[in-house]
Amino acid sequence: MTEVPNMEELLKDSPKNWGKWGPDDEIGALNYLSAAEVLRGVSQIRSGEVFTLQRLIGDPKGDPVWPGRTPAEKTMILDESSWDVEGAPQFPGGLHYADDKINAFLQGSTQYDALGHVWYGGQLWNGYDARTTVGGLEKASVAPIAERGVVGRGILLDMARFRHKDNLDKAEVFTHEDLMACAKSQGVEIEKRDILVIRTNFLKLFFDQGAAFYEGFCEPGLVYSPELVRWFQEMEIPNLVTDTIANEVTFDPNNGTALPLHCALMRNLGVTLTEICDLEKLAADCAADGQYTFLYAAAPLKVSKASGSPVNPLAIK
C-alpha cells in the first residue's frame, strides 16, 4: 500500500496568496470582488427571477452533514400549549407567541467556511499561527467574510447534466478542464473572477439511501492537481460553491489524502468555500432557458470567532 504523503510534502510547491492583500488580511480571494465585479454580476440579471440556494434546516427527510457532526435539533420553547398552564408570559392585550431555538453545528447546513477552518503545518491562511484557533478563531474567522458579504458573477457548472446523469457517483472526480468543457457545452465561458457554482446532485443519494449513504463515505468532486491549483490562482476565483458536504472528492484517489483542495485552495490561495447548497431549482431553470450566469449574493451570519456559518445564498437571473 502506497504511503499517504504529508500535506506539507504534497503541497510544498503549491502557490500561495499570503501577503497579497497585506499581513492582516482575513478574506483572501474575496478581495477580487471589487465594485466592478459586483456590477458585472448585476449585468447578468435579465428576468429578475430569484433562487435561494440554502437547504432546509430540520428537513423532515433529514439533514446531510459531515460524518461525525449531528443534524440541527430544533426545540419549541413556547407555543399555544404554553398558555394551557399557569406561569406563561402575560402581556397587556392578551398576545400569545411562539418561541424556539436550535442546537446545531455552525457548519451543519448550507454554510460558508472561514479561511481559518482548515490548516496544516501549524499555519492558517495568510500565515497566521494555528494556535490562534484555540478557544475560537482570533484570525481568519467567518466574521470578516460575513461583514463583507459576497457578490459577483456566478456561473452554474452542471456536472451531473454534463455527464448525462441524475447525480454523480461516490468518489467520482473531475478537473478544471472538465469544468471548462462543461461550460462550453452550456454555451458559456468561465471568466476571470467568476464565482463557481458546481452541481453534482450527489446529495440525492442521502435522501434516497438514508443511513447507507455514509457507508464507505467518499463524495464526488474536484480532484487535486498542481495544474488545477494554478488555474484557480490565474483565474482569480474568489469563491467555490457546491452542493456537496465538502466541495471536493473526500479522499484523493491519486495520493490518498483527505481534502487536499481545502488546503491548496482555501488555506493557501484564500479561496472561500461554500457547501451543501441546493441547486436543483436553479439548475432546472438554467437548463430550460440556457442562461447559466447570474448575480450571486451571499452573506453568512456574523458569528464571532467562528470557523463557519449558515448562509442562504441568492442566485438572481
Quick overview of this protein structure:
The chain is of the alpha/beta class.
User: If helices are DSSP runs of H or I spanning 4 or more residues, what is the number of helices?
Assistant: 9
Stretches where pLDDT is under 50 for at least 5 consecutive residues are: none
What's the CATH architecture name of the largest domain?
Answer: 3-Layer(bba) Sandwich
CATH topology term of the largest domain? Glucose Oxidase, domain 1
Order of helices and strands: HHEEEEHEHEHEHEHEHEHEEE
- The strand order across the widest sheet is 1-13-11-5-7-9-10-4-12
Q: Helix/strand/pairing class, anyone? A: alpha/beta
Descriptive account of the structure:
The protein is an alpha/beta fold. It is 21% helix and 17% strand. The strands form 3 sheets. Strands 1-13-11-5-7-9-10-4-12 form a 9-stranded mixed sheet, sandwiched between helices. Strands 2-3 form a two-stranded antiparallel sheet. The mean pLDDT is 97.
Task: Compile the SSE list and pairings.
Elements: H1 7-10, H2 35-42, E1 50-52, E2 73-78, E3 99-103, E4 111-113, H3 143-148, E5 150-158, H4 159-162, E6 173-174, H5 176-185, E7 195-199, H6 204-209, E8 221-222, H7 226-235, E9 239-242, H8 260-269, E10 272-275, H9 280-289, E11 293-298, E12 308-310, E13 314-316
Parallel strand pairs: 5-7, 6-8, 7-9, 9-10
Antiparallel strand pairs: 1-13, 2-3, 4-10, 4-12, 5-11, 11-13
Descriptors for this entry?
Glucose Oxidase, domain 1, 317 residues, alpha/beta, 9-stranded mixed β-sheet
